[in-house]
DNA sequence: TTAGGGTTAG
C-alpha cells in the first residue's frame, strides 16, 4: 500500500510536469486500478468475514456471487477462506465442494489457510473422507491443519482416528491436547481425560487454556472429585481465567454443586461480579439448589435473577421446577410451570412434564399428575413419564390408577417387564396377592425380563 | 482481515 501510494504520488508529480505524457497517464490509471481493486477486495473480504462468522453465512455466499459477476474482479486467499468458513457454518457440503473447485482453479491448491479451512469444512459437514483427502494432498501442513483433522474426528465420535492423528502429529499444542481430552470426556472415559490433563500440564508443561478447563469439567463432576474442583478453582484464580471468562466460573460452580458442595458453589456464585452474572450463572446456581433440595433458595434466586433483567429460558424453568419438586414446594412449582407457558410462551418439553408429574406424584396428588400426563402432546409423549406416575401409584398404593397407567404403558411399549413388576408390587402392597401373581404370570408369558432401573430425568 | 478447541437440564 505504501509503495503503491508513493509510486502514485511520483507518477502524479510527473504527470503535472509533463501533461502530455501518455505513458505516465497509463501508469497512473493502472496503479489506481490496482489500488482500487485491493481496497475494494479488502472491504469485500471484511464484509464476507463478518457474514461468514455471524448468524448469516448465507449472506456471504450472496456477496460472493455478486462479486463473481463483476468482470475482472479477482479474489485472494482471504476471500476463499471466509467463503469456505461460511459453507462450514451452513454445513452445506455441496457449496463447500464448489468453493473447493473454484479455489483450486484460482491456484490456491497449495495455500495453507485455504486448504486448512477446507479440512475443517469437510469435517464439519461430516465428509470425513474428503477432509482426509485434502489433508493427505496438502504439500505442507501446520499445527492448525492437524488440529482441524483431530477435532473433526472428535466431533464425529471417532476417538481411534483422533488418537492416531494426535500420536502422529508434530508439535502438539494446547488445542491438540484439549481436543483429545474433550474427546475422552465425551466418550465418558473420564480417567483417561484426567490422565491427559496431567500429562499435558505436568510432563509437557503446556498451560491449560480456558477451553481446556471447560473440557475437563464433565470429568470432574462425573468422578465427583471435589479436590480437582478446588485445584481448577485455584488455577483459574492464578491464571486470570476466573476473572476473564465467566464460562469457567459457571462450570466451576456447577461442578461444585454436582460434587455435593453447594456451599462452595455458592461461594463461586458470589465471587462472580453481579454485572458479569449471565443466564447460565443463575440457571446453574438454581440447578445446584435443586440438586440439594433447596427449593426456597432456588425460588428466591429465580426472582432475584428476574429483577436483574435477565429472561429465563426453558433450562432455567426446568431447574426451578425441579427444585420445587425436590423441595416439596408443589404449588409454587405449578405456578412456575404456568408462568413459563403463559408469560414466556415457552412450549414445555418432556422434561418439564416429567418434572411436574414427579413433583405431583411425590406429593400424592396423583389425579393432577394423571391429568397432566394425559395432556402431553403425542409427538413428545414418552413412556418414561408414565413410569414415573406408575412409581408414584406404587408408592401411594393407588391400585386403580396403577392398573390404568400400566395398561397405558403396555400400549406404548410392550416389552418392558419392570412395569409388570411394579403393578404386581402395588397389588401385593394392598394384600391382593392373587392379582399380584396373575400379573407376574402375565409377565412370564410375555417373556419380558425386568431391566435395570433407568431414569431419563 | 485469513485456519483449530462444547458454560446451564443429573
Automatic annotation (TrEMBL):
PPR repeats lie at residues 142-176, 245-275, 278-312, 313-343, 349-379. Pfam families: E_motif, PPR, PPR_2. InterPro entries: E_motif, PPR_At4g14850-like_plant, PPR_rpt, TPR-like_helical_dom_sf. Keywords: Repeat. The keyword Repeat applies. GO terms for biological process: RNA metabolic process. This is Pentatricopeptide repeat-containing protein. It comes from Cinchona calisaya. NCBIfam families: PPR. It comes from the Eukaryota. Coiled coil: none annotated.
Amino acid at each position: 500500500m505504501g509503495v503503491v501510494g508513493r509510486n502514485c504520488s511520483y507518477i502524479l508529480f510527473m504527470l503535472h510536469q509533463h501533461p502530455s505524457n501518455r505513458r505516465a497517464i497509463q501508469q497512473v490509471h493502472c496503479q489506481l486500478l490496482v489500488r482500487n481493486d485491493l481496497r475494494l477486495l479488502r472491504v469485500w473480504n471484511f464484509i464476507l468475514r463478518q457474514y461468514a462468522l455471524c448468524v448469516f453465512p448465507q449472506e456471504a455466499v450472496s456477496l460472493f456471487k455478486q462479486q463473481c459477476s463483476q468482470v475482472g474482479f479477482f479474489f485472494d486467499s482471504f476471500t476463499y477462506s471466509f467463503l469456505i468458513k461460511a459453507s462450514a457454518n451452513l454445513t452445506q457440503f455441496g457449496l463447500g465442494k464448489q468453493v473447493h473447485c473454484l479455489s483450486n482453479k484460482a491456484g490456491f491448491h497449495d495455500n495453507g489457510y485455504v486448504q486448512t479451512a477446507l479440512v475443517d469444512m469437510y469435517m464439519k459437514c461430516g465428509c470425513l473422507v474428503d477432509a482426509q483427502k485434502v489433508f493427505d494432498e496438502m504439500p505442507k501442513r501446520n499445527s492448525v491443519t492437524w488440529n482441524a483433522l483431530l477435532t473433526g474426528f472428535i466431533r464425529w465420535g471417532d476417538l481411534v482416528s483422533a488418537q492416531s492423528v494426535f500420536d502422529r502429529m508434530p508439535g502438539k499444542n494446547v488445542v491438540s491436547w484439549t481436543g483429545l481430552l474433550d474427546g475422552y470426556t465425551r466418550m465418558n472415559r473420564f480417567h483417561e481425560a484426567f490422565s491427559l490433563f496431567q500429562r499435558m500440564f505436568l510432563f509437557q508443561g503446556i498451560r491449560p487454556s480456558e477451553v481446556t478447563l471447560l473440557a475437563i469439567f464433565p470429568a470432574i463432576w462425573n468422578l465427583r472429585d471435589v479436590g480437582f474442583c478446588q485445584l481448577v478453582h485455584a488455577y483459574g484464580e492464578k491464571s486470570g481465567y476466573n476473572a476473564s471468562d465467566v464460562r469457567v466460573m459457571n462450570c466451576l460452580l456447577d461442578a461444585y454443586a454436582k460434587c455435593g458442595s453447594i456451599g462452595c458453589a455458592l461461594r463461586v456464585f458470589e465471587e462472580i461480579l453481579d454485572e458479569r452474572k449471565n443466564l447460565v450463572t443463575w440457571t446453574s446456581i438454581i440447578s445446584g439448589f435443586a440438586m440439594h433440595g433447596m427449593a426456597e433458595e432456588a425460588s428466591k434466586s429465580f426472582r432475584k435473577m428476574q429483577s436483574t433483567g435477565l429472561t429465563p429460558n426453558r433450562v432455567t424453568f426446568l431447574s426451578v421446577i425441579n427444585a420445587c419438586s425436590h423441595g416439596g414446594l408443589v404449588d409454587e412449582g405449578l405456578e412456575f410451570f404456568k408462568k413459563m407457558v403463559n408469560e414466556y410462551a415457552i412450549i414445555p418439553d418432556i422434561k418439564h412434564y416429567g418434572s411436574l408429574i414427579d413433583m405431583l406424584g411425590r406429593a400424592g396428588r396423583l389425579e393432577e399428575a394423571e391429568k397432566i400426563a394425559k395432556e402431553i402432546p403425542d409427538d413428545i409423549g414418552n413412556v418414561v413419564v408414565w413410569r414415573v406416575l406408575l412409581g408414584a401409584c406404587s408408592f401411594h398404593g393407588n391400585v386403580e390408577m396403577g392398573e390404568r397407567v400400566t395398561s397405558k404403558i403396555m400400549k406404548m411399549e410392550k416389552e418392558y417387564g419392570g412395569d409388570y413388576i411394579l403393578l404386581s408390587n402395588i397389588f401385593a402392597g394392598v394384600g391382593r396377592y392373587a392379582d399380584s401373581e396373575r400379573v407376574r404370570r402375565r409377565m412370564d408369558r410375555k417373556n419380558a425380563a425386568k431391566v435395570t432401573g433407568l431414569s431419563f430425568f
